[in-house]
Amino acid sequence: MRVFSRFVEPTGLRAEFPVLERVAYLNAGTDGPLPARAVRAAIEELEREAADGRTMAHFERRSELEGELRVAYAAMLGCESADLALTTSTSEGLAQVIGGFELADGEEILTSDEEHPGLLGALAGARDLRGVAVREVPLPSIAEAVGPRTRLIACSHVGWASGLLAPAELGALDVPVVLDGAQGVGAVPVDVHALGCAAYAGAGQKWLCGPDGTGMLYVSPGLRERLAVSRRGFRNLGDADAGLDAGLKEDGRRFDAMSLSAEAVACALVAHEVLAEAGWSEVHARARALAAQLTGLLAERGREVAPRGDTTLVSFQSDDPPAERERLAEMGIAVRHIPQRPWLRASVGAWNDEDDLHRLLEALVA
Amino acid sequence: MRVFSRFVEPTGLRAEFPVLERVAYLNAGTDGPLPARAVRAAIEELEREAADGRTMAHFERRSELEGELRVAYAAMLGCESADLALTTSTSEGLAQVIGGFELADGEEILTSDEEHPGLLGALAGARDLRGVAVREVPLPSIAEAVGPRTRLIACSHVGWASGLLAPAELGALDVPVVLDGAQGVGAVPVDVHALGCAAYAGAGQKWLCGPDGTGMLYVSPGLRERLAVSRRGFRNLGDADAGLDAGLKEDGRRFDAMSLSAEAVACALVAHEVLAEAGWSEVHARARALAAQLTGLLAERGREVAPRGDTTLVSFQSDDPPAERERLAEMGIAVRHIPQRPWLRASVGAWNDEDDLHRLLEALVA
After folding, report:
1. ipTM over the 0.90 cut-off
2. Across the interface, do A95 and B260 touch by the CB < 8 Å criterion?
3. Strands (E), chain B
């Protein structure tokens, strides 16, 4: 019954994730599996805070953890850590860039027709509040769709509904590009310089297996100087003791989330470490190969797969996606349905194995 | 050696906080002591997420927890839960209100001369980006300082540096008032209707003893309709499946933080429960009475106390505040220093007892 494959599980990776003992967990595109080690790191911080209180030593500890996470996340994006902000979510980063970008009435933001509400919300804000036009085109042809009024392109790096990749041509355009990397970073290799993007927003809780409420935002130094920052918390200020003249931090920390907890940062950091120990090239290769394998197996069984790229998402046809998702959940198989489309979406990670795929395939025909 | 007092500790409250076994913890104005029970609640959520994964059932669970926290926090402010947003910090709430308020070049925001960087950052943003004047006056006389160009008043409910209360006259003005309640909610009774404020932002991690990264924002229904919302995450949207036409949630959830973790919300909820079980009127009365007692004792010992109100903060003269804070920390006494002022600040909570005050007093003369 076991599906044949040449892919060997990275030693020990699977055992890090308690949920995999029971569930065929194919849902990292929503939230990744949480490693037990990362949970322990969060618990240690919470217990330290309860025992020692939260005084200056606590904030120094939190600051150190944030510094480590910034370095780790920056490496995931191929950028300097000074250009990286720690956020609470992909959406928060996207909202900061789009909300702070200078746009005049009648100018246009170009986006794709398969964007997540987390990006669309910020775009609708720009449209409603600043009279900007938002034009939606298919992701694969977005680079050719740039028009004379296009001032900004904002779209997915990896489409959350289909798993399609943004076209490489985007990086060669003169118009600044903001990428929604919620399904990118951790799932596929990312290099913001090779992508040629001015900003890249990612999630901590999906393909990096961290806690809810974590994320990152890369903003290029050139764009950073151009973005208006209306919300400025203590951590974003240059000299917080200078009152109204505090100014902003020179580097990417001006975009940092206003408050992250030490327990969340420690949890995210150790989750990243678990994957880093398995090796990122191995993690990426294994996840994409398993996803490609699943794509083939679904097609063989007559389940049409949505057009996709070499990514970790596999969306496939379902006659009643919410009902089928629910039925699969009862069988211990975690996938999600895509609203407004006749699709279920399987998110395939390096922590998955062929048994997980097999359980899904068997359940689909049951 | 024990300082005499008529105040009896609320049964069992003190035992909830591990830090009090060792530390004279007078630092809730920065971050409150964390109850062991609240830490356990966070751990339970984290372990559930690791074991069961984070699928639809997880998000339903998180949503339930948020609903409970919204009700609990709304009761603390005396408002409808529909008018309350859950945020990551006081500053986040203040930034949303000030950033979304319609203000024209040449108009003015009135504030006090003892505001926290978390409010000043948002005010500096309005000044730098929208040409608004920001005028600072002493907190006790702020109501009389309203001028013809004043469109908004934004100031502390309880001053973080001194412990002064905003004047009651603010509530009778025609100009909308936004209160920074970081040192208010949980420390002193709050009723947003009695205060007559249009918005009130508070913290979860200070006087409510929750985790870092939690907070609340009340916005009156009248002001809500007038505020521009440029950042709109999934949770803020009316119909997230409607793409660019999703609109905003009708109620206060349009201002919710984009992502809170179940562990943070559960921790905040149980921390609130610990205090609620002791009784809020008892908690408020005891904290204020102990603070008043400390004020008297400091004065007796020749330490000048900063002008204050009937609040839980006691700031007092120090020749070298950072050095004295550090020396006290080494003796297991947690207070903070106030930048730019010759003051140390003791935050007195219902979890404190006279031994805590006594340890501080003895250490100050040591």
Report:
1. yes
2. no
3. 24-25, 84-87, 108-112, 133-137, 150-156, 177-180, 199-203, 215-219, 313-317, 333-334, 336-338, 343-347
Pairing of strands B24-25, B333-334: parallel
Q: Tell me whether B133 touches chain A (CB under 8 Å).
A: no
Interface test with A, best of B245, B263, B359 (most A CBs within 10 A): B263
> Which residues are CB-neighbours of A209 under 8 A, at least 6 positions away?
A17, A28, A32, A33, A34, A35, A38, A186, A271, A272, A274, A275
For the segment B17-67, what is each residue's pLDDT rounded down to a tens digit? 999 999 999 999 999 999 999 999 999 999 999 999 999 999 999 999 999
Query: What does the mean pLDDT of chain B come to?
Result: 96
Residue B53 near chain A (CB below 8 Å) = yes
Indicate if the pLDDT at residue A158 is higher than 50.
yes
Q: For chain B, say whether A18 makes contact (Cβ under 8 Å).
A: yes
Return d(Cα B346, Cα B316) in angstroms, integer. 8
Residues of chain A with CATH 3.90.1150.10: 14-26+279-365
Q: Is residue A330 within 8 Å of residue A9, measured between CB atoms?
A: no
Q: Between chains, do A50 and B127 touch, taking CB under 8 Å as contact?
A: no
Calculate the alpha carbon distances from A189 to A142, A157, A169, B129 in Å: 21, 11, 17, 37
A213 contacts in chain B (CB < 8 Å): 88, 213, 259-261, 264
At B3 the pLDDT is 43
Positive or negative, the CA dihedral B147, B150, B156, B158 is positive
Contact B19 A123 (CB under 8 A): no
- Report the distance separating Cα B263 and Cα B240, nearest Å: 24
Dump pLDDT digits (tens) for A195-253: 999 999 999 999 999 999 999 999 999 999 999 999 999 999 999 999 999 999 999 99
Q: Please choose, from the candidates A98, A229, A235, A249, the residue with its C-alpha nearest in 3D space to the C-alpha of residue B125.
A: A229
CB contact A122 to B (< 8 Å): yes
> Could you tell me the fold of the domain covering A41-275?
Aspartate Aminotransferase; domain 2 (3.40.640)
8 Å CB contact between A84 and A216: yes
Superfamily of domain A14-26+279-365: Aspartate Aminotransferase, domain 1 (3.90.1150.10)
Contacts 24+ apart (CB under 8 A), A78-81: A78/A190, A78/A191, A78/A192, A78/A193, A78/A194, A79/A192, A79/A193, A79/A218, A81/A252
Q: Tell me the pLDDT band of B82, cut-offs 50, 70 and 90.
A: very high
